[in-house]
Amino acid sequence: MTQFINKKEDIVTDAIDGVLAASGGKLARLDGYPHIRVVVRNDWDKSKVAIVSGGGSGHEPAHAGFVGEGMLTAAVCGDVFASPSVDAVLAGIMAVTGSAGCLLVVKNYTGDRLNFGLAAERARAFGLNVEMVIVDDDVALPYLPQARGVAGTLFVHKIAGALAENGADLATVAKAAKKVIGGTHSIGMSLDTCTVPGSPKENRIPEGMAELGLGIHGEAGVEQIPFSSAKDAFAAIAAKLKVAMKAGPHVALVNNLGGASVLEMSIILKELATSDFGSNISHVVGPASMMTALDMRGFSVSLYPANSDELALLMQPTSLSAWPGVGKLANIEIKPLSDGLTAITPLPSKHDETEAFLSGCCEVLIASEDDLNALDAKTGDGDTGSTLAGASRALIDAMDRLPLADHTQLYRAIGLELTQTMGGSSGVLLAIFFAAAGDGASSGLPMREALKLGLARMQEIGGAQLGDRTMVDALAPALDALETGLADAAEAARKGADHTASILQAKAGRAAYINAQQLEGHVDPGAEAVARLFEHLAA
Q1: 14 and 5 in contact (C-beta within 8 Å)?
Q2: Which residues form the signal peptide (predicted)?
Q3: 102 beta partners
């Protein structure tokens, strides 16, 4: 897999320098590059307890992204997924530790425990006061004597860092950190493995499966489970966390493991809020990428029953952009539409033949969803199939409230439904088409002429003409040929749709931004949808 890197051996140093360049002079790195890669605060005067953490790289923004006021004093960075050396950790400790002492926050992996532990012993031999805490928040494998340290580490960074910033002594900071570690529980899930730079990707998670309880280094999870929806996926996460949850309100940290979209993470947050234990979540950190596993397409959830003092420390301001802040989890509030925006629909009426006709058309578009999306991905944004299928499903659901026996009102009612349920420009244009067709039918025009009036109004407002590479290229000839029957209309629609594959310059829609080489040979998805509808009607 191609990645935006230079040389594999320079990945970590290049990334650190990027962080430093964007820090506005607030951060620096120690000399000793590339073997000693330590990011430190530039404003640090050693008058307070230093908080030092780190580990392998690949978890960005952890750990360097959390170096700053109110969080870490220094971050020690190893190679990707590899612990930093003892010398690197010792250099970090000595660079920031004064008479107030230093707290090392270490995730529970053998390499980190050993290297940070030995560095702490050597620092003590130099007369420095150093404490070390081990984070073991992962509940994926509860029977293990030593659980892994994962994203719950961020609770420790923030609470210990805020206490240290406020002037607490080392004993107080270390005691608070140990309390947070004892009460924090985390688990992750992913739909795909991560891509380690310079190494072949391990494709161990089959299509249609999700891995539960995997680590932040790409290590396998506790089990693979069938994936059907975000709701079911979160239910599996919730089942593991509920066992470990304590009584009382909790703060949830919702962490993107690197490859999930912002849209997906917002859905995960919704599932958290409406889950079985959602009522026990008072505040949330994120969703955001905080402790990642490179580009892993997954998420993790960490819970901690913070008391009022700890909540205040979590909410204490910090200038670090990597820390997303803490928000209060509130009930989902729905306000009514303003007067005049609520759709007024005609009285519903039954008509079996019309219902069968409409349902059949909708089923054609639903069945074509993947094909139309694939066509649109070549010439647009890849959602035409989903947009039409979504509107079709909504129309089927609305069948009981449509005036099926009154075709004049039915056109208008379909237009209203599409206005509410179909997004994008295609939804607006088709709503205009049916509304105008309804106007034509109400003035006495027969069906074909009413539909042609709808097309003319849609072209007038949308601007698309024959040859512009849109659904008009199939719809206009189909309506013209409809006078001699559905078979001729279907043939004309197919001919018009297929012709769009040879039109090398689109003049409307997103395809207008695509070059001729990408357009050539690909049928416009809107025109293809029209052709399939008429072929269905003519069958």
Answers
A1: yes
A2: none
A3: 50, 130
Residues in Cβ contact with 164 at an 8 Å cutoff, skipping those fewer than 6 apart = 48, 49, 50, 51, 73, 103, 173
Residues 38 and 90: beta-carbon distance below 8 Å: no
Q: Could you give the number of structural domains in the chain?
A: 2
pLDDT in tens, 205-224: 999 999 999 889 888 888 89
Could you tell me how far CA 284 lies from the centroid of its own chain? 16
Task: Kindly indicate the confidence band of residue 458, based on its pLDDT and cuts at 50, 70 and 90.
Answer: confident
Q: Which helix (H) or strand (E) holds 267?
A: helix 262-273
Based on the fold, state whether residues 100 and 150 are members of the same structural domain. yes
| C-alpha span between 398 and 411 (Å, rounded) | 14
The alpha carbons of the chain give a radius of gyration, in whole angstroms, of: 30
Half-sphere exposure of 40 (CA within 13 A, CB side): 21
* Residue 410 three-state SS: helix
Domain housing 427: 352-538
Q: Provide φ and ψ at 169, rounded to 5°.
A: -80, 170
Task: Give kind and range of the element (H or E) at residue 234.
Answer: helix 230-244
Residue showing tokens 């001699």: 484
Nearest C-alpha neighbor of 379 from the set 488, 235, 526, 478: 526
Task: Spell out the residues 6+ positions from residue 521 whose beta carbon is closer than 8 angstroms to its own.
Answer: 501
Residues 268 and 391 reside in one and the same domain: no
Asked whether residue 232 falls in the same domain as residue 377, the answer is no
Provide the CATH number for the domain around residue 138.
Answer: 3.40.50.10440
How does pLDDT run across 362-378, given as a tens digit for each residue?
Answer: 999 999 999 988 888 87
Instruction: Assess whether 35 carries a catalytic annotation.
Output: no
Q: Where are the beta strands (DSSP E) in 84-148?
A: 102-107, 130-135
- Residues 291, 405 within the same domain: no
Q: Are residues 212 and 117 in the same domain?
A: yes
Residues 146 and 275 in one domain: yes
- pTM for this predicted structure: 0.78
Kindly name the residue from 185, 217, 499, 522 that is annotated as catalytic: 217
Claim to verify: residue 287 and residue 365 sit in the same structural domain? no
CB 456 within 8 A of CB 488: no
319-326 mean pLDDT: 96
* CATH for 503: 1.25.40.340
What lies within 8 Å, CB to CB, of 242 at 6+ separation is 276, 277
CA pair distance 152, 177, nearest whole angstrom: 12
For 376, the 3-state DSSP assignment is helix
37 and 142 belong to one structural domain:
yes
Report d(CA 217, CA 205) in Å as an integer. 15
Sequence letter at residue 234 = F
Give Cα 444 distance to the centre of its chain: 51
